[in-house]
Amino acid sequence: MTQTLSLRRPDDMHLHLRDGAILQGILPETTRHFARAIIMPNLVPPVVTAAEATAYRDRILAALPEGAAFEPLMTLYLTEETDPDDVATAAASGLVKAVKLYPAGATTNSASGVRDFDKVRAVLDRMAEIGLPLCVHGEVTTASVDIFDREAVFIDTVLDPLRRRTPGLRVVMEHITTRDGVAYARAQGDDLAATITTHHLIINRNHILVGGIKPHYYCLPVAKREEHRLALRAAATSGEARFFLGTDSAPHVDALKEHACGCAGCFTATNTLPLLAHVFEEEGRLDRLEGFTSLHGAAFYRLPLTEARLTLEKRDAPFTPPAKIHTGAGPVTVFDPGFSVFWHVRD
Ligand code: NCD
Ligand code: ZN
Predict the structure, then answer these.
(1) Is the entire prediction scored with pTM above 0.85?
(2) How do the domains of the chain map onto residue ranges?
(3) Is CATH 3.30.200.20 correct for 3-345?
(4) What is the pLDDT of residues 240-297, one digit of tens each?
(5) Which entry of 57, 65, 87, 161 is 20 to 30 Å from 117 by CA?
(6) 265: closest CA among 19, 16, 11, 40?
(7) How far apart are CA 196 and CA 191, in angstroms?
(8) Nearest protein CA to atom 11 of ligand 1, as residue
(9) From CA 188, how far away is CA 160, in angstroms rounded?
């Protein structure tokens, strides 16, 4: 008998859709399976104001495949010049669901991010007042801090002081990659949540580096040691409402990944749900997959639960996604887990 699993249609609470030809090419990979997604604002130039978020949302809606029911949940990119009133208006109208904090220089297109946290205090105070979540890329950028330690150091030196300074601020620790991140999230109240990506449940740093450098496994925060991957798997499958899916699916064309200075980002939109079913089954927690993909994130973002459903099916034949998605800007390689996956999304 075929094993099936029915879920409320999932939400991706951290997604990069880009713009122009890449957006057009990769958007169907998300809308095929997901009801909604929190859309990252790190375009060039970034999406800073409500007017820019409106225009970007309209470009996403215009690129939707025929008949797709998909709601982009927009975010604003926090800069030292961000206007608290603009943020509050964008939140009140329902346009914007979160503000994104990138420490300047932390990752792809983060040059306009925050250097001096005192300069964003008024915005954070207003967000705490109105309950608008701050999504945080949790890595310090200090040159002397080892790249594998940047998340843990960020928690102690930036995140915790920032939360103490702005009590009541609702925070999402984005794409946590360490057991330190898991432990910190667990020790807080319900004003803090954490997203976990698909790829960090599957790869550790050896996958990037052993036997030759694998540019398509390079992302930020970079995958850590195996013990951290295991902590993330335990958290994702724990059933705890503070942990939910944010794929951080981050397309870059192959020419920029397979490069002397390759871009950070794993593209997982195409196969995330089969991969997650595989992981949750391995952990003996298929019953908790729906919480991770479709319930916990909606609850934190105070969104209604999705009504449409999606069925996963375990078949004898493996699910083999296309190796690449062809976009007008060039091919984008789909994340390869390195093992066979037998879960399929039923069409
Ligand atoms: C993201 C991107 O490419 O925009 N890259 C990544 O490795 N995750 C930026 C980010 O979320 O850090
Ligand atoms: Zn991201």
Answers:
(1) yes
(2) 3-345
(3) no
(4) 999 999 999 999 999 999 999 999 999 999 999 999 999 999 999 999 999 999 999 9
(5) 57
(6) 16
(7) 17
(8) 248
(9) 10
